[in-house]
Structures are given as C-alpha cells and as structure tokens.
Amino acid sequence: MSLKRTRIRPITKCLMSTETKSPDSLAGKYLTFALHRESYGVDVLKVREIIRMTSITAVPQMPDFVRGVLNLRGKIIPVMDLRRRFQFPAQEDNSQTCIVVAQVRLPDGKATQMGLVVDGVEEVINLADADIEETPDFGGQICTDYILGIAKVKGAVKALLDIDGVVGADLLKNLRNIAQTVPA
Q1: Cβ(159)–Cβ(150) under 8 Å?
Q2: Can you identify the CATH homologous superfamily of domain 23-181?
Q3: Higher-confidence residue: 3 or 116?
Q4: Can you say whether residue 60 is alpha, beta or left, with left for phi > 0 and alpha for psi between -120 and 50 degrees?
Q5: SS3 of 22, please?
Q6: Pairing relation of β-strands 111-118 and 75-81?
Q7: CB–CB of 118/36 below 8 Å?
Q8: Which residue in 52, 65, 139, 160 could disulfide with 148, CB within 3.0 to 4.6 Å?
Q9: Per-residue pLDDT tens over the stretch 35-44
Q10: How far is CA 62 from CA 19, 38, 79, 119, 157, in A?
Q11: Residue 18 half-sphere exposure, CB side, CA atoms within 13 Å?
Q12: What SS3 class is residue 144?
C-alpha cells in the first residue's frame, strides 16, 4: 500500500508543545472507534455527541480530508474525515459510519466543535494506569505527538489520540473562520 502525499502534511507536522504526558496521567474514560480495521480512543470529556451520517456541505479549496460543514441544530460545525486524515484508503459510508462531535482547542486557547467522521463507534472504556503504555519511539523521522499513549484492552491495542494534535492548530484556525462565514 502506498501512502498518498498531500499539500498539507496532515500528521507529520508535529505540535510545537514541549509538554509530554506520561501514561499515569492518562487514566480515565475514552470513547473508542474504528478506522480502517483498527481501534482508536479519545478522551470522553472531549466528545460532545455522536450523530448519524448526515448531509455535509462541501467547502471549496479545503484539503481532501475536510468533508465540509454541517448544520447541527443551527450551529455550523466543520467536518473532518479521520480515515482520510490518516491517509487510509477511501471507503464508502455505511450504516456504521458516524460523526463524533468533539470539542477541540485552538492555539489561542478558545474551544470549538469539530465533527470527525469515523467508520464506527465501539464503546466507552475506563482505562487504568496499568492499561496504558507510552507511545513507542518510531525513530526521529516519524512524529507521534498526536498519540497520547497505547492502551491494552481485552488483548487488543488501541491508540489514544490527542484530538487537538490530530486536527492540527493551523487547520483548526482556518476551519473555525470558515464555519463563522457560512450562514446557518
């Protein structure tokens, strides 16, 4: 499988933060979801709601992993396809495909909501310190700042994501500006 390069380096552009979280500070509840036959988790406190796939309005000149915006009860929410963000092969939406609406933080400290298209939601799990290991070192060329840690759950491995890092500070600011200009 060959990975497609995009103009915006989705995950390879690392966060500028010097803060490193240790696994013992990551214990808590996580919403787990499927993407490309793998499991991922985000802090449940970042999740606002989960909705079925709905009509998404495309926005011109956005990277291919930004599907557009949706009107969620009168509020315009930018929508990102996590499958495309991670450069996984495209897949048709099905009955399990859904949008996780998450609260993400902008570089200026403000919070905004973002819709994240996932292949399917699995469960909410409670992870203890012993269930989470530090992100492995894949070498200097591979940025893993968006991975908080690796959880071991029932014999399976789930990557715990820093959703602010996945979205990316530069992209997030642009999407917030676009959402403010689209009429509800």
Answers
A1: yes
A2: CheA-289, Domain 4 (2.40.50.180)
A3: 116
A4: beta
A5: coil
A6: parallel
A7: no
A8: 160
A9: 999 999 999 9
A10: 30, 26, 11, 21, 32
A11: 0
A12: coil
